[in-house]
């Protein structure tokens, strides 16, 4: 409960209707894209300007009230669940494109804008903003920045981090900071811009971003390569890169994913293959033709059973949409879908997929795997039922072992989804106790009273190893 | 003076001959590439392994002795001058290439390796590491990482920061931290990798780096465009980008630079033109041909008086070498050369060059300007004489106004050289008092006793505005 004196101050800042604490507002902001997590906030606020955000933070910091800033809350790490209550700050009203600068190839936006709306606008001007998280139709640029989101084009073009040139952000105490600018180079002090990207709302509330744009590729070509054997598909990924070709997109789907995606999208994919690679190259047409030809012969020599090159953009878009729909398609199978994010050096993806399958068998759980093979970024996805606590427990044990396997293969616990609540107990596996201590120091420098998205990134308890009989209380069933 | 008990401990760690405190060692490590700065250390140490670095730091931190880690000290911001004495740690013995991973396109190196030696090795394997600071024949990968160095290929390929995937570093207390990895994506916690890149030796001692490699471009073409009018040259830069062409290199030299470079390199450049653009494109040969043709017609329509396309690689290399030699060539003119680093949005470079010329006239000092026009990263370079204190004072006032002008044009005080000692008083102009406070908090999180390169980045005093009668004592004449 927030003191009515405080809520009155908050309403004065944003206007009566933009602070809500009715049950509907609280419940609808108590969860995010992550299954089985829920926690009610005390209030929900919808600022319109950076100055409002600053004024809100002045009030909240004086009263030591936690705040969770969010866009559309499509994250998959429990990153925007208000686990310590307080105020959820929804950024959707701050959704303006402030400028597109054609001479400098930059765009400056408020962070509440929907990513796909931004990219459509940019593309209509003949420009290109490559980061394309699968959530882009609903997620915001601010959310993408908070999570340093990846996407299907990460291999060639990098992720959100690579396109953020400057930020405006509000600190916990309400002070406004501006980093970077329309500058291709800036080494004036520590790189606060890149530090804020991926900081998951725990260091500052990001209100504006200056983004780098690039010229769009002149042509594109999309192909599928199908394999009866997973290792051959994975080896093809490494071989393409070894041949000094960096495709724009290089995705993998395993058999379980293929079947579900095909049932959903009706593409006529064969249901008996072990894996499909979805490969896209873009650039000048000669380069694209040459690369696709070479990729085709690499696929053949690595034993692809069938290769299909999309005949036109329409067919290509169908394939890409199918891949993007993998999560949705899998979600139809059973009531609860848990999509994870283990990432390894790309040379180890075959080992990783096999380990995932072994672990799924060991715990007798259903896990389909797809992901950005070129980045080594896999999304093992469990289909389960939150009401079956015993099965969910096995799923959690399986994921714990999957994270362990990723680390042991030189990988990381999260490639693009963030740490949030779900991965916090495992962060030490990747970065060590010393790394956590340094990160805690950084957190303290920005947010001394731990008001910004508290309870995320840093866990109270670190998982030392898999303990079968442990009880996990943090995941409770959402609203159903 | 360091207590003999401590020096004995340090000698035990590295071996008798790898800790020195004889006058020759102290004097030769009392300055760096920055003119007019000198301060004697108390000792110089040459570690061979990460564990030695960790052991050294354990000893130094117990005794609260400052340490300045350095590669070849070619930086231009006073970044490696040991202004608070203590120990200079020279990283040159840690110069091994630990691995080149062809499947993952990464290289892991000790940070004391010379950049050009590393790139030659990589290129001999048919791979490409784009960052190419002009100092690369003498500078180290560790120095490049500490300063987040740029280079001539920054426009298309980015800077050092964009190629560092993982780091091993030793903290002030001797603990070892490992960040990132052979991972194209990793969002496990705050991005310590990118935070350490560009941290100028103030947060940790970087001992190993995992670097991203890319396929080399298949062909290259180099051209010069000459202009009787500076504005036309600068406008051409924006026009090329607006035409959605991102050249690999897009450099500018003003008349003063052209004359000096030509006298030095005997290229037969015309001495009467106002500016020359040096443009290089790389990629597949069809793309390069098409881009160069289009660039040529943009140059023509913007009023270039003469355009020359290099006929072969030899001629092209000659042009690039000439540009790289600008600093050396200018250094022949007078005893002291001060090369600065003002950076603006690329659309503002004409305004910036004109402001530089106005300021040079106002203070009656000689400033030649060249730089990475495509990045908006200009290097106004003053030729002066350190023994003429009155003139040097005017040069310093001129640079102060140049930094102010850069900021007022939406730019920054340093694009690729770092803050170090020289820019520290101006950092607040770029990042504000709030930004400085956050950076100080980060510094404290890593290095609570301020032992790592103390006196850098953060200034005791901030320049509020240009004050004519101030006395600056920090710059004293080096060893001559």
UniProtKB/TrEMBL annotation, chains A, B:
Keywords: FAD, Flavoprotein, Oxidoreductase. Signal peptide: none annotated. It comes from Cohnella yongneupensis. The keyword Lipid biosynthesis does not apply. SUPFAM superfamilies: FAD-binding/transporter-associated domain-like, FAD-linked oxidases, C-terminal domain. Pfam families: FAD-oxidase_C, FAD_binding_4. InterPro entries: FAD-bd_oxidored_4_C, FAD-bd_PCMH, FAD-bd_PCMH-like_sf, FAD-bd_PCMH_sub2, FAD-linked_Oxase-like_C, FAD-linked_OxidoTrans_Type4, Oxid_FAD_bind_N, Vanillyl_alc_oxidase_C-sub2. Gene3D superfamilies: 3.30.465.10, 3.30.70.2740, Vanillyl-alcohol Oxidase, Chain A, domain 4 (1.10.45.10). Residues 37-216 form the FAD-binding PCMH-type domain. Its cofactor is FAD. It comes from the Bacteria. This is FAD-binding oxidoreductase.
């Amino acid at each position: 409960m927030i003191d009515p004196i405080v809520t009155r101050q908050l309403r004065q800042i944003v206007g009566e209707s933009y602070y809500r604490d009715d049950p509907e507002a609280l419940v609808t902001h108590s969860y995010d894209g992550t299954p089985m997590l829920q926690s009610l906030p005390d209030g929900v606020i919808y600022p319109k300007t950076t100055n409002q955000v600053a004024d809100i933070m002045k009030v909240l910091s004086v009263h030591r009230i936690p705040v969770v800033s969010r866009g559309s809350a499509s994250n998959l790490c429990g990153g925007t669940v208000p686990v310590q209550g307080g105020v959820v700050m929804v950024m959707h009203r701050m959704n303006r494109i402030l400028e597109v600068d054609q001479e400098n190839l930059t765009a400056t936006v408020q962070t509440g804008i929907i990513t796909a709306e931004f990219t459509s606008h940019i593309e209509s001007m003949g420009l290109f903003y490559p980061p394309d998280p699968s959530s882009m139709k609903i997620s915001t640029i601010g959310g993408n920045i908070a999570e340093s989101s990846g996407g299907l084009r990460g291999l060639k073009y990098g992720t959100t981090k690579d396109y953020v040139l400057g930020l405006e952000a509000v600190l916990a105490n309400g002070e406004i900071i501006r980093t970077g600018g329309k500058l291709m180079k800036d080494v004036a002090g520590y790189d606060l811009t890149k530090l804020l990207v991926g900081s998951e709302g725990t260091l500052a509330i990001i209100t504006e971003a200056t983004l780098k744009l690039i010229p769009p590729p002149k042509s594109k070509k999309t192909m599928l390569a199908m394999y009866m054997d997973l290792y051959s598909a994975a080896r093809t990924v490494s071989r393409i890169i070894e041949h000094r070709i960096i495709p724009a997109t290089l995705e993998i789907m395993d058999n379980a994913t293929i079947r579900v995606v095909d049932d959903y999208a009706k593409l006529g994919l064969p249901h008996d293959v072990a894996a499909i690679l979805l490969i896209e190259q873009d650039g000048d047409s000669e380069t694209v033709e040459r690369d696709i030809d070479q990729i085709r012969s690499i696929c053949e020599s690595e034993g692809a059973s069938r290769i299909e090159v999309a005949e036109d953009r329409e067919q290509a878009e169908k394939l890409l949409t199918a891949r993007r729909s993998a999560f949705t398609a899998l979600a139809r199978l059973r009531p609860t879908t848990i999509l994870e994010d283990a990432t390894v050096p790309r040379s180890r993806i075959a080992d990783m997929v096999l380990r995932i399958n072994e672990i799924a068998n060991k715990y007798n759980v259903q896990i389909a795997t797809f992901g950005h093979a070129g980045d080594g970024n896999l999304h093992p996805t469990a289909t389960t039922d939150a009401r079956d606590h015993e099965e969910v427990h096995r799923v959690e044990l399986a994921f714990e072992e999957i994270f362990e396997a990723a680390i042991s293969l030189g990988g990381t616990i999260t490639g693009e989804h963030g740490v949030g609540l779900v991965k916090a107990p495992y962060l030490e596996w990747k970065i060590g106790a010393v790394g956590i201590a340094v990160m805690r120091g950084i957190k303290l420098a920005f947010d001394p009273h731990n008001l910004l998205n508290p309870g995320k990134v840093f866990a109270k308890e670190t998982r030392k190893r898999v303990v079968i009989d442990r009880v996990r209380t943090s995941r409770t069933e959402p609203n159903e």
